[in-house]
Structures are given as C-alpha cells and as structure tokens.
Amino acid sequence: MGWLKRLFGMDKPKEAKVNPPTQQPPTSAASRPKTSQAPATTQQSTIPPERQGLHGEYDQSGLAKRVALAFDEDPDLDDIDTLYVAQTSTTVVLKGQVPNQAILDKMVKVAKGVNGAKSVDTTQVTVG
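Above: the chain sequence. Below: its structure as tokens.
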C-alpha cells in the first residue's frame, strides 16, 4: 500500500506532482471594479508552498501529501509502512520507526526537496 493511500486514504491522482506550479485564484469580470481607470496596483493572492496540493490547488495538508507522493515515487522508500508524515507549517514531521539510519537520511533528503519544506523534524522517529 502506498504512502498516499495509507496516510490519506487516496490513490495517486493522475498527473499529481511533488512540486506543482501554483494555481492563481481566478479573477472574474464581475469582481473587478467598474471604473474608467485601471487600479494602481493589482493584488493577487498566491497559495503558500506548504499549502499547495498535488495539483497546485490549496490544500491544508498539501506539503505532507506532496512528501508522501515523493516517498511513493522513490523505489527505496515506497514500501516503508512504519512511518507517518505530518506537517506543522513549513516543517515536515516524521513519526514512527525506520529500519536503519540510511533510510531515515534518505527520507529527510527527499522531504527537504519538496517545495515548501523548510525543515524536517525526526525527533519522533526511532531507528532499528
């Protein structure tokens, strides 16, 4: 069973990406002010990287899901089923057990490679 299925109860969506492009919220003509002058500044909200989902959409657990997808895509990590992934803001939190330090080191490296991950907390991981 893959990471996404085990942690989030979902199969890997088609065309899901570990680092998808950010989607901009659509601006409709009805929401624009009706003036003859263009606004001095246009403000578009962007989705913070840690909240980007698998397709670039807003997702509260986006970073954790994209890290799980990255683990699914790595043949050395796709069958580890004793570890869990969570997130606290821009920190990826790993919890559980791994068979050896080399696997944990690789997981940290893969997690740090996901856009939005500023750090990886392994204090709740046991090795062995």
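Confidence is low (pLDDT under 50) at residues 28-33, 38-43.
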